[in-house]
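Lab notebook page, bench 4
Experiment: in silico fold of construct C2
Operator: M.H.
Input chain length: 100 residues
Purpose: comparison with the prior construct
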Amino acid sequence: MLLFAVSALEKVSQVPNKVWLNIAMGFLILFAVVYFAKQAAQVNKIWLTIIVAVVLAMVGFNWIYSRNEPKFLTPFVDKLAPFFPSASGYAAKQQLPASS
């Protein structure tokens, strides 16, 4: 049995540090979400709705502007994108020659 323990310990020691950092960050984020969910349960629902709406609007506008939305939302964002400015449209305007 000691042979198996040494083998497992060697395998664990070969895992890159970045993986352990990602696992630790995942647990930290999970604990933060649980903490904020408990705190949000005590907040007035109107304020909670306003805050959630503002955050979702900021994320949504960022996805539309830079077109980095998740793949499953691309059809929905494709329908909204023509009504809002985009990074590619801004870059195209910057490339136009200046007319005097």
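Observations: The chain has one domain: 16-94. The mean pLDDT is 84.
Next step: discuss at group meeting.
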